[in-house]
Fold each of these.
Amino acid sequence: MSDTGVPARKSAVYLLDHILGEGRLMSELTGAGALDKLPAEDRARASRLALDTLRGLERADRLLQKHLSKYPPLTVRNALRVGTVELCQGAAAHGVVNAMVELVSRHPRLGHLKGLTNAVLRKIAADGPEAWDALRAPRLPKWLRGPLVQAWGAEAMAAMEQVHFAGAPLDLTARGDAQAVARATGGVLLPTGTVRIAGAGQVTAMPGFAEGDWWVQDAAAALPVRLLAPKPGENVLDLCAAPGGKTMQLAAAGATVTAVDDSAGRMARVEENLARTGLTARLVVQDALQTTGQYDAILLDAPCSATGTIRRHPDLPHAKDGSEFGDLIALQAQMIDHAWRLLKPGGRLVFCTCSLLPDEGEVQVDEALVRHTDMRADLAALECPGIEPAWVTQEGGLRLRPDFWADRGGMDGFYMACLRKAV
Ligand SMILES: C[S@@+](CC[C@H](N)C(=O)[O-])C[C@H]1O[C@@H](n2cnc3c(N)ncnc32)[C@H](O)[C@@H]1O
């Protein structure tokens, strides 16, 4: 890692410029190699700085506003934001200020703003972390906050924003004995069987990673397969499978799994994950709507707004504006109808999305139940260990929100329902 911390901070500012300026997602930028030239430690630091800054963006802007008569160009503004977040997290003032001044002074067009950077960050350091702590938890942008307040109410929204701001712990799904994984990793076992670790370090260095004893999967994301309850030897279709968290759960239960995803790049991740865990599945790179065959059980983890994953992906509300959600909602309905044709009589389909929008959950299932007279919501499937009755919805699905289990570190927002086909 560099002594000055300038390369990691410069990369964090680069990420923010593209997320906030061009609406790119962090995963797109890192996938395209944005951090590849940095040593591993700097890469981790750059990502952490960018994510922490996105989580605290509203607070950073409120503090900076006091010391700026007009906004400087985006790159300098982002350097000030990163510096503010670091200072308010308690980093040593001289290190942060020197690094940010150096970063700005080296910029080919904005070097003249190094004096401003120095003066503003010194004032932020003098304000101290108390000024930061006195501000409310950052709110989601209006385009997303509006529909979520309408769906869940203002109080629940504020609770979700608190959890978004806090970030997420590391959750693991065990290939076999979850208790043993909890012991080996120093984690706690949640009531639903997920192992949760607070303050985890590098994932690949943790006990059991190389042996494939577990994989990273949010506690909420582990539940759809529990609802499906695959049995050994059953023919199970995993539609929209990559990167394969649920594929591995299905395979670990002994099912004969066909995993379909239309992204060859993402399917390569499924292959790697299966190889590491020693599990097997037939992998097919294909549009889910072109899939054929007849299956005992189907898991449909449909593409969605991903608004349930903001704890882990605070870039999403800043990079998106909701304009593509209508197309996703239409595609989800098409996928439910297609999956229904591939399901044997008496079989079950678990539909799920990592979304907080009822249009991608409760409403999808309500409407599917009207379109398919041979479909019913299977309430018995929801009786899994740890699932709380309050999470069950009117149409017979499960609604999970980030503020559920807030005292344990929250969970991703998710919707899921088990739909049973008449014999
Ligand atoms: C929510 S992610 C799936 C996560 C995965 N089930 C897991 O547990 O790791 C949605 C996936 O849908 C895939 N996808 C999007 N449109 C698709 C389509 N038309 N056909 C097949 N896969 C699609 C994306 O490539 C993405 O991997």
Note: The first strand starts at residue 170 and ends at 174.
Amino acid sequence: MKTWIQNGHVLDPLTGTDQIYDVLVDGKDIKKLGTREEIAKILKKEENVQVLDASGCYVMPGFIDLHVHFRDPGLEYKETLKTGGEAAARGGVTTVCAMPNTKPVIDTKEKVEEVHRRAKEESPVHVIQLGAITVGEEGKELADIKGMAEAGCIALSEDGKSVMNSALYREGMKIAKKYGLRIFAHCEEIDLRRDPDTGEDGVMNKCEKSEELGLPGITNSVEDIITARDIFLAKDTGVHLHLCHCSTKGTVDLMRMAKEEGVSVSAEVCPHHFILSTDDITEDHGRFKMNPPLREMKDVEALRQGIKEGVMEVISTDHAPHSAEEKDAPMRKAAFGIVGLETSASLTYTELVEGGVLTPMQMAERMSFAPARILGLENKGSVSEGKTADLVVFDPSREYEIDTDTFLSKGKNTPFDGWKVKGDVKYTLVDGKLVYKNKAYEEQE
Ligand SMILES: NC(=O)N[C@@H](CC(=O)O)C(=O)O
Ligand SMILES: [Zn+2]
Ligand SMILES: [Zn+2]
């Protein structure tokens, strides 16, 4: 099967291509970039091709989300490989890294293989399952790192928490390095998560707003301390360290230092952390509760500056679906986490590209090329001949209102419901196959 994407503005971070081209997809691969005539010449007259109109749209490499929670196995009432995959496709995301904090925790070769096998059948997008660092994410003994590497894990993560025992963690890093795996770190000193004044478990950022709402707070140091520790351990062991859901100015400063020192590190920021601050928390409600929490404006500004410079080179979502019952509650009761797959590209385009922080090419870099490089996926993250046809056709002019009722994800938990945004996904292709077609364009056709 061939697909002919016509008249799109190709953005390719690998070769620097930044111009209007037609793109011919043949099977799973990108066959040719060229003019209408050049593509027409390759095709036989009677040949059956799928034509997609990309006029006025960017053709970018499919987004690669290094951080999602698909809750499968065990917590399927929140999300499944199928619904999570459909939400991803809708957001222009063609590959996800699924965190291992499922039920059971993914900590063996067999469990990784099982998710990979099922994902091929059930999810429309590529799913890379990450394995836990310790058995059951309990922080007591190391999981079967070698076995998980053999199952194609690529990276390990204890997401949801940090490995608090530094010696055990260092040992895990050494083994990960030996088998070519990266470490994706959730940085949180759990013993400090309690409010320094009241000792109660923190539910939002510690600041004037938390005082005003009478809620227990989480200080920036809860993140910064472990960020620093992890960077030093990465330096000692040589493993590649990727910092998840960075939220503080301190983390940006530490990342800048680590990169100057030549440590093998990368870092991601999620839309909620570079868009919202504690000023946006209008009431004591679970839709504003996530870990790490929304921080203050000075942090948001530092994150944006870091993204602009490329110190923070990845935009991920930390897509964390929960049921309505788990989220429609005051902060003390609600679960940590918000969904992000279906809003990430629109929010990033609206806030960062329209907002003058990133060029459209840099958006493709942060959302696809850089994550592909971190994972070592040479065939992804690029719209150039011979690469895998994981593609997104993104329309920068379509304005719409975010409506959780339309979400394909089971999770509707987001503070962005009702937000007006600019830029939307028109088509998503995975391995050359059309896996998402935006219904908003059907009426026009
Ligand atoms: N981010 C969150 O608030 N929650 C995540 C866990 C995590 O990413 O640490 C979850 O699994 O729900
Ligand atoms: Zn986390
Ligand atoms: Zn997470």
Note: The longest strand covers residues 391-401.
